[in-house]
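Table 4 source record.
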Amino acid sequence: MKKTLTHILFFFTIVLVAQDKNEEKALQKQTNKALSYVAEANDYAKSNDFVNAEMEYRKALSTKPSQSVGAYNLAYQYYQKGSLDEALYRNQQAAKHATDKVEKHRAFHNIGNILMKKEKCKEAVEAYKNALRNNPKDDETRYNLGLAKDCAKNQQDDEPQEDDKDGENNRDKDENQNEDQKENNEKQQEDQDQKDQKDQGDQDKKEGDQDQDKDGKPDDNKNQDQKEGDQDNQQQQPQQGQLSPQ
């Protein structure tokens, strides 16, 4: 029984190894076929035959979608033709499936270039940064990053500051409301002062009449107080602030 079990396990091991080898061969065959399509596409591209080049690149991507070289080369052809959206998509596809830093750097660098063409400077900055993460020594990428940063800053400065504008309008509105309230309060205070003065005048007149009735002439003390009050008013008219007592 033990011997039979050993034979069964050995048989399954052989089967699994054979399956792995078959899958590896199939994958290699798929890779080779995709590369052959890319090679044919490159030949067409060199001859400026864009239609056939595009067709062969698409065959390569259909055969092996995860192969970045086909997507990258097709993106380059689209870029040359001015089809920026298609070029951007294929470069993003190449960056996604890139297997090493060289391929990633190249794809992200070109993504940055396309985004700059599309005037999407802020997004281009991030693309160039990703490129430099995979190849920090590339001076061209670093130079382009500087251009993208300047472009992004200029675009930000040119954008209308809607939030700030709304805030400014709100501030103006509040200031106007405060000014109206202040004027209203001052008017109320002025009306109250006039009323108080009128009441005081009526009271003084009444008292003066009483004094005149009592003595047959206006009260001398009242006249003296009025004279001193007039002097005080004359002194207070020009003052800008309260004077301290002498």
